[in-house]
Design a protein that fits this description.
The complex is a heterodimer of chains A (278) and B (291). With 278 residues, chain A is an alpha/beta fold. Chain A contains eleven helices and eleven strands. Helix content of chain B is 37%, strand content 24%. Chain B has eleven helices and eleven strands. Classes of the chains: A alpha/beta (278), B alpha/beta (291).
Amino acid sequence: MIVSVASGKGGTGKTSIAVNMALSIGNVQLLDCDVEEPNAHLFLNPKINQTQLVTVSVPIVNEKLCDHCGKCAHFCQYNALFVGSDKVLVFPDLCHSCGGCALVCPKEAIGEDQHKIGTLKLGSTDDLELVYGELEVGEPMAVPVIREVKRHIGKDKNVILDSPPGTSCPVIQTVKDSNFCILVTEPTPFGLHDLKIMIQVLENIRIPFGVVINRAGVGDNRVYEYCEEKGIPILLEISYERKIAELYSRGIPFSQQMPEWKAKFQTLFNTVRKLVNK
Amino acid sequence: MKQLTVLSGKGGTGKTTLTASFAALVRNAVVADCDVDAPDLHMLLHPQIIETKEFKGSKLAVIDETKCTGCGLCRKKCSFDAITENIKVDPFACEGCGVCTIVCPLNAIALTEKISGHAYISKTKYGFMSHALLSPGESNSGKLVTLVRQDAKVLAEKEHADLILIDGSPGIGCPVIASVTGADAALVVTEPTMSGIHDLERVLRLLRHFDVQPFVSINMHDINKDNTAKIENFCRKNGIAVVGKIPFSQIVTEAMVCGKTVVEYSPRSEVSKEIKNVWDITRRNLQLDRD
């Protein structure tokens, strides 16, 4: 089973819930898909067994063959090529690696080069397997790095995907193909607003979901009313506690110091499994 | 005219809370909400929309079923797995590159422009605001951020504003890059947690990469004093100004529930005093004469 953890709004507790749930169940693989700001490893101190470069294909122009007709730049939807009167400029960070420029070049002057956009890390702790990616600072495109992280999804594992915040393409890339999505929110107007956008995303791509309310007790009741009105299951509530916030600040998964939470995270995972099998 | 971007790397550290209070404190600024896929600033500033624009940020392949024979060449050549087994376009996977349109032997595929969000020009009680909403799950948020900033710039020039105040999004990817390039400075809002520190370090590297001057504000500094000291040390060593430390306060959430900025909801509170202080120092660092 593949379970993604997403939120819309940042800082609601996605990583905390993904990590604590991962530590409470067996046979787990945790994939941190927030490649812009990966944090799960900070709570787990994994042994890194393997590091791989993540590259994307970008065009390389053979100026000897090129007659500067400009068809490649005309075709490119992302403005990744500029054809001057005697030189072609390639902008690798705008390229989406579709390969179209090479297909339209009448002189077969365009080949493939590799451009580094990130690093993939495969690690483990006593309890779990961790895979995460790091987008190279200054590179704009997270999606190919997320794709690379997800290529390492193991078969027959309890797979947990920690999603980046937001509701755009990196989030879609993370949550698609998951069997269920846990939406982590906080009972505040910002939390609810971004939760609603995220629910639209999941309804569009038809992924079943439920809500975890973090920092319960702060804010207001509108998120509860919304879930009730829409028939959205509230899977777990985590009350705001200074102790949890402090443990978080030190990079300690709170279920390790507050063992009563282990059972609650197991129940969360089992509830998700039941909802998936229904 | 100056441009200040409020950033964080990590989400939920208080970017929007600070931006909204700054908007209430500053005179003669245009506010731009550049968190286009999860915008929240409007819930505190209550903009009245004056103008709405459609955002056509990306294209989508459309297959003419009357011409398609299902040969599957498009599926084979698509780099984004956006053509399904039964030769349909998956709109959430398609990146609008157009490769399928040129490989199709029957010319059955065309690219169409799609509306992937809206941009707004609005008025708030503090001045003009440029903002947007990306349609759920869309791509090209960077382009929409650029549009929001262009609109803000036009407004700022027309109004002779001194400042464009930009609320950024979490992360360091395309929308964040689009919200910082060409800005005069960035205020990075961090928190004294392991995640906050890790993400701060990456966002500071991003700012160095794009040559934007950073300032740092430590929110909820009293949650972990050791980590706060670490952040201060790190900033000192790297010549980065820490412009303030804001305490954890329930008032921040209370103000949000009431749809108000913190400095208006509870002007005399400790947290408001600190926010005003952060703004004063930031304003001086930016050399804004009027305020």
